[in-house]
Amino acid sequence: MDEVKYVSGETRLYAIVGHPIQQVRSPEMVTAELVKRGHNAVLIPIDVLPADFERTLAGLMRVQNLDGLIFTIPFKRSALSLAHELGAQARQVGAINAMTQDRRGKWVGDIFDGIGCVEAFRRHNLEFKGRRVMLIGAGGAGRAIGVAIAHQGPSSIRIYDIDEQRAVDLARTIASVDPKISAVVGTPDVGNVDFLLNASPVGMLSDPRAPIEARQIPSEVVVFDAIVKPEITKLLAIAQQSGCRTILGREMMRGQIAKIVDYFERGGKTSFI
Questions:
Q1: Tens digit of pLDDT for each residue in 6-32?
Q2: Which of 42, 65, 113, 255 is most solvent-facing, going by the fewest CB within 10 Å?
Q3: Where are the strands (E) in 26-113, listed by range?
Q4: What are phi and psi of 96, to 5 degrees?
């Protein structure tokens, strides 16, 4: 009988839940990190319709060999209600993207997107302190990124979201983190900024659009896109053609994976940088 070595009856399960789910890179990347650390474990993708989220998760969380969950679009806010306790940054952001059980058997959750984004910039020797930031998207990922950047001391953050109230709410949260930051809501602007970040789903998978109307971006602007598939989005293609430095979504993913696996290993104790 043929056998494989990477899964067995003793394999511990983790799941990433979202809709759609085809774009995620977490299954291969998180599984590789778990295996590298000596765990017999695998992260599997689960596609759940929003209308089925609560019912599906109620059953999934009862699976005895399930040790953790990761949440992606559109469930980072919805997942808040599943956790018995939230980490400090999750409370500030109002969303989670990772959840596990602590030693008491309680489900605890926190958010790691923002830390991953900051780490991706650091690996390019880029700091947010004193910089002017344009952030597109104020949903789960956008809020996490905005809050994490606010802790780095930028001079200004301009926020755009198709839902203006979400952008307004994020600007208020940023101001509460650091009142010295000029946090304003406005349409996407590629002038008078140092960093342009897309945390919206525009450009994901086969979506040919860019989240900005500009065909050219000033070459001194650093451009980041949180989307992982496609790797080079329309926005990044415009940026590269304009001579800009670019940071890919997979780099943010790598920046947060180690922290998420730490979180799983430590039973929900957060270790932010």
A1: 899 999 999 999 999 998 889 999 999
A2: 65
A3: 41-47, 66-71, 85-86, 98-101, 107-110
A4: -135, 155
Token pair for residue 262? 């730490």
Q: Which residues make Cβ contacts (< 8 Å) with residue 4, sequence separation at least 6?
A: none
**Which residue has tokens 């070595």?**
5
State the angle between helix axes of 164-177 and 140-150 in degrees (0 to 180), rounded to the nearest 10.
20
Tell me the whole-structure pTM to 2 decimals: 0.80
| Cβ contact 128:194 at 8 Å | no
Domains and CATH numbers, the chain: 12-112+253-265 (3.40.50.10860), 114-249 (3.40.50.720)
pLDDT in tens, 233-267: 999 999 999 999 999 999 998 989 988 999 999 99
